[in-house]
Design a protein that fits this description.
Blueprint: H1 3-27, H2 40-54, H3 65-68, H4 74-81, H5 89-102, H6 106-115, H7 117-123
Amino acid sequence: MDQLKVKDRILENISLSVKKLQSYFAACEDETPAIRNHDRVLQRLCEHIDHALLYGLQDISSGYWVLVVHFTRREAVRQIDELQHIATNLGRSRAWLYLALSESSLESYLRLFQENQGLLQKYYFKYAQISVITI
């Protein structure tokens, strides 16, 4: 599959997951539903965003943790580093994603990525840039 089709597929999956999440909220007319980490609709959205952030990384085994530590507040980095059940940077990447979503800060982080092209070029292959920004 060529690189453009991969990007399109990743973005399509994110779009479908967002629509499912919106449908979930719409079905709860009078009450505001509580979304929890174990809710499948949220897990699928996180998986697709994770795929977008991993796509084109030069070192997938390090995840995007090597990039996000440049923008994430120190307390959050420390908190993620201290998680006992996470032993890899790939795991820290995913913990960061959940944290960014729970803090409603993912959009702000994506803007920071876009504003720092030099860092993106350091960690991502050129063909991948900038699937993470087009989310």
